[in-house]
Every structure is written in C-alpha cells, then in structure tokens.
Write a structure and sequence with these properties.
By secondary structure, the protein is an alpha+beta fold. The chain is built from nine helices and four strands, in the order αββαβααβααααα.
Length: 235
C-alpha cells in the first residue's frame, strides 16, 4: 500500500517538470508527512540549475492547487545556493538529511555532511532561544490553562526536532522519527514519559483541550536540562 504522501509527491514533481523542464535537478520530500503523520502537508526541497522570477510566478500560480492537494510550498533553491547554505542552516538541513525520500533526480545529500561543531553551536542557539520563548510565553499566557496548552502544543515540534539533532551529535543516524527523538532525549537525560507526551502533541493526536498545560513544568525542566547538556558538550 502506498503512503499517503506519495500521490501528492508525484503530482508535485509533474508540476515542477512543467515549470523548470531540464533545469529541474533534484526533488526530495521530508518532514512530518514522510515521517508518518498522514495529516501533515507534504514538504519538499527542490533544486534547480537556474531560478528566475518567471519561475517564481509559475510556482505562485500553482500554489493554490498545491495547498488544496496537501502540498506545502516547496523550498526552491539553486543547486549552488543549496551547497553554500549547509553551514548557515545546519539544523534545518540536518533534519532533512536525517529522513527524506528522493522523488526526482540524484540525491543531493550524497557525500555531504554538516560539521559537528556547527551543529553543536546551532543547537545551543536554538535551545536557549526555545527556553526564553517558553518562559516569555508562559508569562504572557497569564497562567490561563487554555493559553498554556496552546503554548506547549505549538512548541512541541520544535523541541522534538532539537532532540533529534542532539541524537545526531551523539552519532545516532537512524531515520526513524521516534527512535531518533528518544535517542536524543536519552543523551540529554530528558524523561521518556515527557518525550512520549510531546511526540503525541507533535503528531496532532487527540488530547483534551487543556491537557498539554500540565506538561509545562516538566517541559521547562527538560529544556533547561537540554541547554546544560549542550553547554558542556565536547565535539
């Protein structure tokens, strides 16, 4: 049985071939849809040999159709721009490298690595930013359970993604979403029960409207623990 994302992926590739023709180099799918969340839109990276404003106009005309078909706006890059951007976005591209599916052309990640020191620095910046966001968000919520629940739910995917990057720092290379998340949590000493709850939120599973609010104290402790771990990490 084909995965839910495979049909929109084929439609996207067909559209991109119509727009770019022979200039279309590679297309890969990544993110929640290929990680097993059937309700998530298909996210993709598109590499081309040249990119013009008329190309963007053509993509813009297809965007409403893509949205209706469960396809997020593709990330379109010139292939040289992509190679020069790996060090600028080590977390983002690292997550794509961890779990992706080649849809068209050669795999653009073959032979590419992100230096561990760049990954560690990016993790530290993101984790500390995440901690500040949670603290500020809680104060702004006035402690109202529904607002706290929204804060926890909205931020859970970013935190679990951070755990997967910590797993990569610990030389864990699995492409399995939950395995990578739990491996990062173990490396940082984050409780497994909390990770299970946050993964549930990330997958948009049904929970009581205010239930995520109860997670915030342990969640804050976990982010603080993760920040301490990265502070003392030795590459």
């Amino acid at each position: 049985m084909s995965a839910a994302w495979e049909h929109p992926a084929a439609a996207l590739v067909s559209d991109l071939q119509g727009i770019f023709g022979a200039r279309l180099t590679s297309v890969v799918a990544y993110g929640a849809a290929v990680d097993g969340n059937a309700r998530a839109p298909l996210t993709s990276l598109v590499l081309v040999s040249s990119l013009t404003f008329p190309d963007l106009e053509a993509c813009a005309r297809r965007a409403p159709h893509w949205e209706r078909g469960g396809i997020a706006t593709p990330l379109v890059l010139h292939e040289d721009e992509f190679r020069r951007s790996l060090d600028s976005f080590p977390l983002e591209f690292g997550e794509i490298i961890r779990a992706h599916r080649r849809l068209f052309g050669p795999n653009p990640f073959d032979g590419l690595t992100i230096p561990r020191d760049q990954l560690r620095t990016a993790c530290e910046t993101q984790i500390k930013s995440h901690l500040l966001h949670l603290r500020e968000g809680y104060i702004e919520s006035h402690g109202e359970p529904a607002a706290v629940a929204r804060l926890v739910s909205a931020s859970a995917p970013a935190f679990t993604a951070l755990l997967r990057n910590v797993a990569r720092l610990n030389d864990v290379s699995t492409s399995e979403h939950m395995d990578a998340t739990r491996a990062g949590a173990r490396a940082a000493g984050v409780p497994d029960g909390l990770v299970s709850d946050l993964l549930t939120l990330e997958q948009q599973s049904a929970m009581a409207a205010t239930d995520p609010a109860r997670l915030l104290p342990a969640y804050l402790d976990a982010v603080e623990q993760l920040a301490r771990t990265i502070d003392t990490w030795r590459v």
